[in-house]
Design a protein that fits this description.
The chain is mostly beta strands. Helices cover 0% and strands 49% of the residues. The strands form 2 sheets. It has a 6-stranded mixed β-sheet with strand order 2-10-9-4-5-6, with no helix packed on it. Strands 1-3-8-7 form a 4-stranded antiparallel β-sheet, with no helix packed on it. Strand 7 and strand 8 form a beta hairpin. The protein is globular. The model has no long low-confidence stretch (mean pLDDT 97).
């Protein structure tokens, strides 16, 4: 199982980023996927979850209305669209899959 994230970077407050996580080594369309984040001095936080078919999603209250999780099962990829970013969204963002699999993380920094 391998998960590879991309799309992080430095953005100003109010800006947008789209994270991608491409999976391999398992039947992607059979499993729900999640995005987590880990900010300095804080515990790891579940940001968003999407069901295997994409019809069910949930998000942390802190990102509701700003972040959207989607997936493309044909491309074995899950996305996190992040809008109206705030400095408190600064963290390393991780993709989580089945069998305890995690991506390597991608840094998101929101700063002016």
């Amino acid at each position: 199982v391998q998960l590879v994230e991309s799309g992080g970077g430095l953005v100003q407050p109010g800006g947008s980023l789209r994270l991608s996580c491409t999976a391999s080594g398992f039947t992607f369309s059979n499993y729900g996927m999640s995005w987590y984040r880990h900010a300095p001095g804080k515990g790891r936080e579940l940001v968003s979850y999407i069901s295997s078919g994409g019809g069910g999603t949930s998000s942390a209250d802190s990102v509701k209305g700003r972040f959207t999780i989607t997936r493309d099962n044909a491309k074995n990829t899950v996305y996190l669209q992040m809008n109206s970013l705030k400095p408190e969204d600064t963290a390393v963002y991780y993709c989580k899959g089945p069998f305890g699999s995690w991506g390597q993380g991608t840094q998101v920094t929101v700063s002016s």
